[in-house]
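Notebook B, p. 112. Complex prediction, attempt 2.
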Amino acid sequence: MTCDYLALAAPGVRTLQPYQPGKPESELRREYGLSHIVKLASNENPLGPSPRALAAVREALGELARYPDGNGFELKAALSAKLGLSMAMLTLGNGSNDVLELAARAFLTPEREAVFSEHAFAVYPIVTQAIGATARVAKAHPPEHPMPYGHDLEAMRALISDRTRIVFIANPNNPTGTWLKTAELEEFLSSIPESVIVVVDEAYGEYVEAEADCPNALRWHDRFPNLIVTRTFSKAYGLAGLRVGYAVSHPQIADLLNRVREPFNVNSLALVAAAAALDDVSHLERGRAVNRAGMRQLQDACRPLGLNWLPSIGNFLCVDVGRPGREIFLELLKRGVIVRPVDNYGLPRFLRISIGTQAENARLIEVLNAVLKS
Ligand SMILES: *Cc1c(COP(=O)(O)O)cnc(C)c1O
């Protein structure tokens, strides 16, 4: 090869670090020849999708030769009814990752800036840098704060300038699990110029319990036209493999997102599965109950081991293992348990553990005990 394609790549792409996904089970099976594997690495729903979603997928298989509905009418209608807002405010995505990227493409340029926090979801720097825009990364709360490593809205506000077009906020945040309370986020939104788009990423919104005082930002669309709220079917709805999510925004912003969207960005199986999943309230409730119980199970197991964790209202717990998390991650891997090291998020002593079924959590706890005592 005589050509250096790295040198030819777009400047932002040249230094881009690709997203590091949770290790797939199939890879571990290949590498270690293990048969029994527990994957608690990607915040998936351990119950899987609603049976109604599976039935809808089966029914749609006969139409795979056809392009999907590029406007996603049925799913938008279902979401619109469920959320009580107009279809013109909805943008569907190939996962909510897709809509985060649409927001970046619609509003960022190499001259503009995006603001987000340290330890925030890894997709924000990727979509910002891919466009060549500048990322302004705010210091997170210190470890001794009640929301350790959580978003510090004061620090984020201080980075906003005339060049800022987007602020990315994950609420609750992944991988920390920390969240912003209603009053502080509302105050932040009130203080930001309307010319700055605020993306509130609510990928874990369905897991949030009322006591947490973590707001559902959809309620603020009337007051803040610069707000984009993103949601996904990958987490609580158990449809990560199908890739479907959505954004709720002012119709003018939705129109802009639609302009940069791939014509058929959401596949036909995802469209029908998501619509069917929305109807199955009791499946969602079962998932929430499993998550609550699993969260307690995991915390009850961490306490006697002397392990601390970050406050979390998601379906995962970020645990301080008191030594390089990657070492423990590798030891767990050898024993067939996949969790997520988060050194790449600036949290080298932590492991992010997704909440699984009772049996999966028990296996993780058993293996973690063995590794920490060896
Ligand atoms: C998992 C996750 C997403 C999105 O996932 P998709 O599968 O692309 O919908 C978005 N934001 C956060 C904070 C997440 O953890």
